[in-house]
Amino acid sequence: MKLFVYHTPELTPIDLVPECAIAVDVLRATTTMATVLAVGGEAVQVFSDLEQLMAVSEKYSPQKRLRAGERGGSKVPGFDLGNSPLDCTPELVKGRRLFISTTNGTRALQRIQDAKVVLAAAFVNRATVVRYVLEKQPETVWIVGSGWEGSFSLEDTACAGAIAHSILQQTNLPPDEQAGNDEVFGAIALYSQWQDNLLGLFHHASHGKRLLRLNCHEDLKYCSQTDILDVLPIQQEPGVLINQK
User: Fold this and answer.
1) Is the pLDDT of residue 92 over 90?
2) Quick one: 95 exposed, middle or buried, by C-beta within 10 A (0-12, 13-18, 19+)?
């Protein structure tokens, strides 16, 4: 098994498709997706385009759908939800499909949707994602950070490092045998430095600061928790994630 870390979707190779691809958008899309599926959401369907989201979700039963739209950290007017995992309560979400479009995370998922296996990961469900990868032993694994509008994000690379670190710890193989690019080592180093203070890292991150200006303090606290959800968001069909029990 070879692990590759890419800081943004734009940095992934254009002419290759991995056996397994993991999208990471800690603040907040993949954290929100994991939370929705953990509390009983039927599925999460991702879109990069808001108009396409509206058109597709219009064909779905109003009682069975939720529309989540976020741009620049703020909720899109007219949508049921923004991109806060704290809004995704069991009472609201259970049995419903979340149609979601965010600034960065949904774009990352669409970039990797042709991989044989596509997963969504954040700190909150890191252990479950790692367990799946270790069980299946895919030949190539891409861990793709969402970044912010094409730029590197501290929190996504730290989460990629958390995933890679856990995989390497549990395989007991030399890191050089499993690391497919230098970014794996950089991501692990970043995570190792901040693993005991992820909330502090988020306060340094540009997107963390952006969310703090929007008074999303509790979101940051929630997103900084590690291994609290036993949920595996896995792509069932292009753009549609379900929880693999």
Assistant:
1) yes
2) exposed
